[in-house]
TrEMBL record:
Residues 19-331 form the Enoyl reductase (ER) domain. Keywords: Oxidoreductase. Pfam families: ADH_N_2, ADH_zinc_N. It comes from the Bacteria. This is NADP-dependent oxidoreductase. InterPro entries: ADH-like_C, ADH_N_2, ER, GroES-like_sf, MDR_fam, NAD(P)-bd_dom_sf.
Length: 333
Protein backbone atom coordinates (compact mmCIF):
# COMPACT_ATOMS: atom_id res chain seq x y z
CA UNK A 1 0.00 0.00 0.00
CA UNK A 2 1.23 3.50 -0.84
CA UNK A 3 2.53 5.55 2.10
CA UNK A 4 0.95 8.95 2.79
CA UNK A 5 2.88 11.92 1.33
CA UNK A 6 2.88 15.57 2.38
CA UNK A 7 2.90 16.97 -1.17
CA UNK A 8 1.38 16.14 -4.54
CA UNK A 9 2.69 16.65 -8.06
CA UNK A 10 0.05 18.15 -10.36
CA UNK A 11 -0.36 19.37 -13.94
CA UNK A 12 -0.76 23.12 -14.52
CA UNK A 13 -1.57 25.29 -17.52
CA UNK A 14 1.00 28.09 -17.55
CA UNK A 15 -0.20 29.99 -20.64
CA UNK A 16 -3.39 30.20 -22.67
CA UNK A 17 -3.02 28.27 -25.94
CA UNK A 18 -3.76 30.70 -28.78
CA UNK A 19 -3.34 28.08 -31.50
CA UNK A 20 -2.53 24.37 -31.56
CA UNK A 21 -1.90 22.98 -28.10
CA UNK A 22 1.78 22.66 -27.14
CA UNK A 23 3.62 20.90 -24.33
CA UNK A 24 5.03 24.34 -23.48
CA UNK A 25 1.52 25.33 -22.35
CA UNK A 26 1.89 22.94 -19.40
CA UNK A 27 4.09 22.51 -16.36
CA UNK A 28 4.36 19.94 -13.57
CA UNK A 29 4.33 21.60 -10.15
CA UNK A 30 4.36 20.52 -6.52
CA UNK A 31 1.63 21.46 -4.06
CA UNK A 32 1.23 20.84 -0.34
CA UNK A 33 -1.40 18.32 0.72
CA UNK A 34 -3.62 19.48 3.59
CA UNK A 35 -4.18 17.40 6.69
CA UNK A 36 -7.28 15.27 6.33
CA UNK A 37 -10.44 16.68 7.89
CA UNK A 38 -13.23 14.41 9.20
CA UNK A 39 -15.05 12.89 6.22
CA UNK A 40 -12.00 13.09 3.92
CA UNK A 41 -9.57 10.51 2.58
CA UNK A 42 -6.31 10.54 0.67
CA UNK A 43 -6.26 8.98 -2.81
CA UNK A 44 -3.19 7.74 -4.67
CA UNK A 45 -4.21 8.09 -8.30
CA UNK A 46 -3.57 5.15 -10.62
CA UNK A 47 -5.17 6.22 -13.92
CA UNK A 48 -5.83 9.74 -15.20
CA UNK A 49 -8.32 10.44 -17.98
CA UNK A 50 -7.13 12.55 -20.93
CA UNK A 51 -10.20 14.09 -22.58
CA UNK A 52 -10.38 16.43 -25.61
CA UNK A 53 -13.03 18.67 -24.06
CA UNK A 54 -10.43 19.85 -21.49
CA UNK A 55 -8.83 21.83 -24.33
CA UNK A 56 -11.67 24.38 -24.18
CA UNK A 57 -11.12 24.96 -20.47
CA UNK A 58 -7.41 25.57 -21.03
CA UNK A 59 -8.13 28.37 -23.52
CA UNK A 60 -11.22 30.14 -22.18
CA UNK A 61 -10.14 30.79 -18.61
CA UNK A 62 -12.26 28.14 -16.90
CA UNK A 63 -9.06 26.35 -15.90
CA UNK A 64 -6.94 28.89 -13.96
CA UNK A 65 -3.30 29.42 -14.82
CA UNK A 66 -0.63 27.98 -12.52
CA UNK A 67 -3.10 25.87 -10.58
CA UNK A 68 -4.05 22.22 -10.41
CA UNK A 69 -6.20 20.93 -13.28
CA UNK A 70 -9.02 18.43 -13.02
CA UNK A 71 -10.10 15.32 -14.88
CA UNK A 72 -11.64 11.98 -14.06
CA UNK A 73 -9.27 9.63 -12.26
CA UNK A 74 -9.24 6.25 -10.60
CA UNK A 75 -7.16 5.83 -7.46
CA UNK A 76 -6.64 3.88 -4.27
CA UNK A 77 -7.57 5.16 -0.81
CA UNK A 78 -4.36 5.21 1.24
CA UNK A 79 -5.52 7.08 4.34
CA UNK A 80 -9.03 7.78 5.53
CA UNK A 81 -11.05 9.79 8.02
CA UNK A 82 -14.32 8.70 6.37
CA UNK A 83 -16.18 5.74 7.85
CA UNK A 84 -17.34 4.46 4.44
CA UNK A 85 -13.96 4.57 2.68
CA UNK A 86 -11.20 2.25 3.84
CA UNK A 87 -7.54 2.10 2.76
CA UNK A 88 -7.14 -0.22 -0.21
CA UNK A 89 -10.51 0.60 -1.81
CA UNK A 90 -10.61 1.94 -5.38
CA UNK A 91 -12.57 5.09 -6.19
CA UNK A 92 -13.38 7.18 -9.24
CA UNK A 93 -13.32 10.96 -8.81
CA UNK A 94 -12.73 14.25 -10.66
CA UNK A 95 -9.53 15.45 -8.99
CA UNK A 96 -7.22 13.90 -11.51
CA UNK A 97 -4.14 15.30 -13.27
CA UNK A 98 -2.15 14.88 -10.04
CA UNK A 99 -0.59 11.92 -8.28
CA UNK A 100 -2.38 12.36 -4.92
CA UNK A 101 -5.75 13.95 -4.16
CA UNK A 102 -8.03 14.51 -1.18
CA UNK A 103 -11.47 12.98 -1.67
CA UNK A 104 -14.87 13.28 -0.05
CA UNK A 105 -17.63 10.71 -0.24
CA UNK A 106 -20.13 12.84 -2.17
CA UNK A 107 -17.55 13.46 -4.90
CA UNK A 108 -16.53 9.86 -5.57
CA UNK A 109 -17.89 6.46 -6.50
CA UNK A 110 -16.44 3.14 -5.51
CA UNK A 111 -15.05 0.81 -8.16
CA UNK A 112 -15.03 -2.95 -7.69
CA UNK A 113 -11.54 -4.25 -8.40
CA UNK A 114 -11.28 -7.26 -10.68
CA UNK A 115 -14.84 -7.19 -12.08
CA UNK A 116 -13.55 -5.58 -15.27
CA UNK A 117 -10.11 -4.32 -16.37
CA UNK A 118 -9.53 -1.02 -14.61
CA UNK A 119 -9.02 0.76 -17.95
CA UNK A 120 -12.62 -0.07 -18.95
CA UNK A 121 -13.85 2.21 -16.16
CA UNK A 122 -11.98 5.06 -17.85
CA UNK A 123 -13.48 4.38 -21.28
CA UNK A 124 -16.43 2.19 -22.28
CA UNK A 125 -17.74 1.75 -18.71
CA UNK A 126 -16.86 5.28 -17.62
CA UNK A 127 -18.20 8.75 -18.29
CA UNK A 128 -17.15 8.71 -21.95
CA UNK A 129 -19.00 5.47 -22.55
CA UNK A 130 -22.01 6.87 -20.75
CA UNK A 131 -22.01 9.91 -23.05
CA UNK A 132 -22.15 7.53 -26.02
CA UNK A 133 -24.95 5.44 -24.48
CA UNK A 134 -27.12 8.42 -23.45
CA UNK A 135 -26.55 10.28 -26.70
CA UNK A 136 -27.42 7.40 -28.99
CA UNK A 137 -30.25 5.80 -27.02
CA UNK A 138 -31.88 8.63 -25.06
CA UNK A 139 -31.12 11.77 -27.11
CA UNK A 140 -31.05 10.44 -30.69
CA UNK A 141 -33.38 7.45 -30.01
CA UNK A 142 -31.66 5.33 -32.66
CA UNK A 143 -33.86 2.46 -33.87
CA UNK A 144 -33.16 -0.78 -35.78
CA UNK A 145 -32.92 -0.27 -39.52
CA UNK A 146 -32.00 3.41 -39.33
CA UNK A 147 -28.82 4.90 -40.78
CA UNK A 148 -26.46 6.30 -38.12
CA UNK A 149 -23.39 8.45 -38.74
CA UNK A 150 -20.78 8.93 -35.99
CA UNK A 151 -17.95 11.45 -36.34
CA UNK A 152 -14.58 11.09 -34.60
CA UNK A 153 -15.57 7.46 -34.42
CA UNK A 154 -12.22 6.08 -33.30
CA UNK A 155 -12.17 8.09 -30.08
CA UNK A 156 -13.28 6.90 -26.68
CA UNK A 157 -16.87 8.15 -27.11
CA UNK A 158 -17.33 7.72 -30.85
CA UNK A 159 -15.96 4.17 -30.95
CA UNK A 160 -18.57 3.05 -28.43
CA UNK A 161 -21.40 5.04 -30.06
CA UNK A 162 -20.85 3.46 -33.48
CA UNK A 163 -20.66 -0.05 -32.00
CA UNK A 164 -23.82 0.52 -29.97
CA UNK A 165 -25.56 1.58 -33.19
CA UNK A 166 -24.41 -1.64 -34.86
CA UNK A 167 -25.72 -3.72 -31.92
CA UNK A 168 -29.08 -1.93 -32.05
CA UNK A 169 -29.36 -3.00 -35.69
CA UNK A 170 -28.62 0.29 -37.42
CA UNK A 171 -26.68 0.79 -40.62
CA UNK A 172 -23.43 2.34 -39.41
CA UNK A 173 -21.23 4.94 -41.09
CA UNK A 174 -18.22 6.50 -39.38
CA UNK A 175 -15.75 9.29 -40.08
CA UNK A 176 -12.14 9.31 -38.87
CA UNK A 177 -8.91 11.06 -39.77
CA UNK A 178 -6.39 8.33 -40.60
CA UNK A 179 -5.96 4.99 -42.34
CA UNK A 180 -5.09 3.11 -39.14
CA UNK A 181 -8.31 4.33 -37.50
CA UNK A 182 -10.25 3.30 -40.60
CA UNK A 183 -8.74 -0.17 -40.40
CA UNK A 184 -9.47 -0.58 -36.68
CA UNK A 185 -13.12 0.40 -37.04
CA UNK A 186 -13.69 -1.81 -40.08
CA UNK A 187 -11.63 -4.86 -39.10
CA UNK A 188 -11.95 -4.88 -35.29
CA UNK A 189 -15.10 -2.94 -34.42
CA UNK A 190 -17.16 -4.22 -37.37
CA UNK A 191 -18.34 -0.85 -38.69
CA UNK A 192 -19.91 -1.13 -42.14
CA UNK A 193 -18.55 2.03 -43.78
CA UNK A 194 -15.63 4.16 -42.58
CA UNK A 195 -14.66 7.39 -44.34
CA UNK A 196 -11.45 9.38 -43.91
CA UNK A 197 -12.56 13.00 -43.75
CA UNK A 198 -9.04 14.16 -44.66
CA UNK A 199 -9.46 12.76 -48.19
CA UNK A 200 -10.41 15.40 -50.76
CA UNK A 201 -13.58 13.59 -51.84
CA UNK A 202 -14.88 12.71 -48.37
CA UNK A 203 -18.19 14.54 -48.86
CA UNK A 204 -18.90 12.60 -52.04
CA UNK A 205 -17.96 9.35 -50.28
CA UNK A 206 -20.28 10.21 -47.41
CA UNK A 207 -23.20 10.94 -49.73
CA UNK A 208 -22.57 7.67 -51.61
CA UNK A 209 -22.55 5.74 -48.32
CA UNK A 210 -25.97 7.19 -47.40
CA UNK A 211 -28.04 6.92 -50.61
CA UNK A 212 -31.29 6.93 -48.63
CA UNK A 213 -30.21 9.79 -46.39
CA UNK A 214 -29.27 9.95 -42.73
CA UNK A 215 -31.55 9.32 -39.76
CA UNK A 216 -29.23 9.89 -36.79
CA UNK A 217 -26.01 11.86 -36.51
CA UNK A 218 -23.89 11.44 -33.38
CA UNK A 219 -21.73 14.55 -33.52
CA UNK A 220 -18.36 14.73 -31.81
CA UNK A 221 -16.84 17.23 -34.24
CA UNK A 222 -19.10 20.11 -35.37
CA UNK A 223 -17.87 22.30 -38.22
CA UNK A 224 -17.73 20.92 -41.76
CA UNK A 225 -18.80 17.43 -40.72
CA UNK A 226 -21.95 18.75 -39.09
CA UNK A 227 -22.62 20.75 -42.27
CA UNK A 228 -22.27 17.60 -44.35
CA UNK A 229 -24.48 15.53 -42.05
CA UNK A 230 -27.27 18.11 -42.10
CA UNK A 231 -27.14 18.23 -45.88
CA UNK A 232 -27.98 14.50 -45.91
CA UNK A 233 -30.31 14.18 -42.94
CA UNK A 234 -33.84 12.91 -43.50
CA UNK A 235 -37.04 14.58 -42.29
CA UNK A 236 -37.48 13.89 -38.56
CA UNK A 237 -33.76 13.14 -38.29
CA UNK A 238 -32.02 13.55 -34.94
CA UNK A 239 -28.61 14.96 -34.04
CA UNK A 240 -26.99 14.26 -30.66
CA UNK A 241 -24.37 16.95 -30.07
CA UNK A 242 -21.75 15.37 -27.83
CA UNK A 243 -18.63 17.38 -28.70
CA UNK A 244 -17.02 19.85 -31.10
CA UNK A 245 -13.48 18.62 -31.62
CA UNK A 246 -13.07 20.89 -34.65
CA UNK A 247 -13.49 23.88 -32.34
CA UNK A 248 -11.06 22.92 -29.62
CA UNK A 249 -7.73 23.71 -31.29
CA UNK A 250 -8.67 26.28 -33.93
CA UNK A 251 -8.64 30.07 -33.98
CA UNK A 252 -11.77 30.11 -36.23
CA UNK A 253 -13.53 26.91 -35.21
CA UNK A 254 -17.19 27.42 -35.95
CA UNK A 255 -19.01 26.83 -39.19
CA UNK A 256 -20.11 29.83 -41.23
CA UNK A 257 -23.21 27.98 -42.37
CA UNK A 258 -25.50 28.62 -39.41
CA UNK A 259 -28.17 29.94 -41.76
CA UNK A 260 -28.10 26.72 -43.76
CA UNK A 261 -28.41 24.68 -40.55
CA UNK A 262 -31.42 26.70 -39.42
CA UNK A 263 -33.18 26.34 -42.76
CA UNK A 264 -32.56 22.59 -42.90
CA UNK A 265 -33.89 22.07 -39.39
CA UNK A 266 -36.96 24.21 -40.04
CA UNK A 267 -37.92 22.56 -43.32
CA UNK A 268 -37.22 18.95 -42.29
CA UNK A 269 -38.17 19.08 -38.59
CA UNK A 270 -34.69 17.93 -37.61
CA UNK A 271 -33.98 17.72 -33.89
CA UNK A 272 -30.53 18.87 -32.73
CA UNK A 273 -29.81 18.49 -29.01
CA UNK A 274 -26.81 18.91 -26.78
CA UNK A 275 -26.82 17.15 -23.41
CA UNK A 276 -24.88 16.30 -20.26
CA UNK A 277 -24.94 12.87 -18.64
CA UNK A 278 -25.42 14.29 -15.14
CA UNK A 279 -29.09 14.69 -16.10
CA UNK A 280 -29.45 10.98 -16.95
CA UNK A 281 -28.03 9.19 -13.92
CA UNK A 282 -31.14 6.99 -13.82
CA UNK A 283 -29.72 5.22 -16.88
CA UNK A 284 -26.38 4.37 -15.25
CA UNK A 285 -27.36 0.87 -14.00
CA UNK A 286 -28.79 -0.14 -17.41
CA UNK A 287 -25.70 1.28 -19.11
CA UNK A 288 -23.36 -0.72 -16.87
CA UNK A 289 -25.31 -3.95 -17.37
CA UNK A 290 -25.68 -3.64 -21.13
CA UNK A 291 -22.23 -2.38 -22.05
CA UNK A 292 -20.49 -4.57 -19.48
CA UNK A 293 -22.19 -7.65 -20.91
CA UNK A 294 -21.30 -6.72 -24.49
CA UNK A 295 -17.69 -6.11 -23.49
CA UNK A 296 -17.42 -9.49 -21.74
CA UNK A 297 -18.84 -11.28 -24.79
CA UNK A 298 -16.56 -9.40 -27.18
CA UNK A 299 -19.52 -7.76 -28.95
CA UNK A 300 -17.94 -4.37 -28.20
CA UNK A 301 -14.22 -3.87 -28.74
CA UNK A 302 -12.21 -1.18 -27.04
CA UNK A 303 -8.75 0.32 -27.41
CA UNK A 304 -6.72 2.16 -24.76
CA UNK A 305 -3.62 4.29 -25.32
CA UNK A 306 -1.61 4.22 -22.08
CA UNK A 307 1.08 6.79 -21.26
CA UNK A 308 3.23 6.21 -18.17
CA UNK A 309 3.99 8.83 -15.54
CA UNK A 310 2.56 12.25 -14.72
CA UNK A 311 5.24 13.90 -16.86
CA UNK A 312 3.69 12.23 -19.92
CA UNK A 313 0.42 14.16 -19.47
CA UNK A 314 1.22 17.25 -21.61
CA UNK A 315 2.28 15.17 -24.62
CA UNK A 316 -0.75 12.92 -24.16
CA UNK A 317 -3.03 15.97 -24.46
CA UNK A 318 -1.16 17.33 -27.48
CA UNK A 319 -1.34 13.99 -29.31
CA UNK A 320 -5.02 13.52 -28.49
CA UNK A 321 -6.04 16.97 -29.74
CA UNK A 322 -3.91 16.51 -32.87
CA UNK A 323 -5.79 13.29 -33.69
CA UNK A 324 -2.87 10.94 -33.13
CA UNK A 325 -4.60 8.72 -30.54
CA UNK A 326 -6.88 5.74 -31.07
CA UNK A 327 -9.57 4.94 -28.51
CA UNK A 328 -9.26 6.12 -24.92
CA UNK A 329 -6.11 7.91 -23.73
CA UNK A 330 -5.04 7.47 -20.11
CA UNK A 331 -1.97 8.27 -18.05
CA UNK A 332 -0.90 5.50 -15.70
CA UNK A 333 0.83 6.41 -12.42
Amino acid sequence: MTSSPSTAREVHIVRRPAGPLSTADFAIAEAALPDLAPGEFLIANRLLSIDPVRRMFFANGTAPLNAGLHSFSIGEVVESRHSDYAPGELVGHYKGLRDFAVGRGEETRKIVAGEYPLEWHMGPLGVGGFFAYVGLIEIARARPGESVLVSSAAGSVGSLAVQLARLIGCRTVATVGSADKQAWLADVAGVETVIDYKQADWRERLAAALPDGLDVYFDNVGGAQLDAALSLINPQGRVAVCGMVSAYDSATPFSERAGAWTWRMMTSQVGLRSYHVRDYQRLWPAFQRSVGGWLRRGAIRTETQVRDGLDATPQAFVDLIAGRSLGKTVVRL
